[in-house]
Amino acid sequence: MPAMASRGRGRRTINEINMVPFIDVMLVLLIIFMVTAPMLTPGMMDVPTVGASNKPPKVFATVLITKDGTLQFKTSEATRTLNQREIGEAASRWQKAQTGDSAVVISADKGVQYETVVKAMDALQKAGVQRVGLSVKQGG
What we know:
By secondary structure, the chain is an alpha/beta fold. It folds into 2 domains: 10-39; 59-134, Nucleotidyltransferase, domain 5 (2-Layer Sandwich), CATH 3.30.420. Helix content is 31%, strand content 24%. The chain contains 3 helices and 7 strands; from the N terminus they run ββαβββαβαβ. Strand 6, helix 3 (114-126) and strand 7 form a beta-alpha-beta unit. The longest helix has 17 residues, at 20-36. It is elongated. The protein starts with a strand and ends in a 6-residue tail after the last strand.
């Protein structure tokens, strides 16, 4: 039976929500989450590993991606700053001019957005560059 309060002439029901059970349930849930959270393991991603190439290229050009996202095409002769579209064309022309085994290596700053590196790789692939590699720092 709901709680009744007498006021003057008639009896009235008190229509208030009792918050104590609600708070008890929330505290129990909080304790459950606090106990189980340290037991959860974070999601691990299994990325492929690479080793040293069996046959490194004799001649290679480098696509340098700086912190601000500018692209530079560096060969043994010169270094030129190019845009996304021109980098693929320049690399394709350079690779066709080489007589032996040649490759294009992408070297990006650690702080460069991943999207910029992927766009550079895409431009090289669309231009028909046969061999593309990524420059990495060995060790941890």
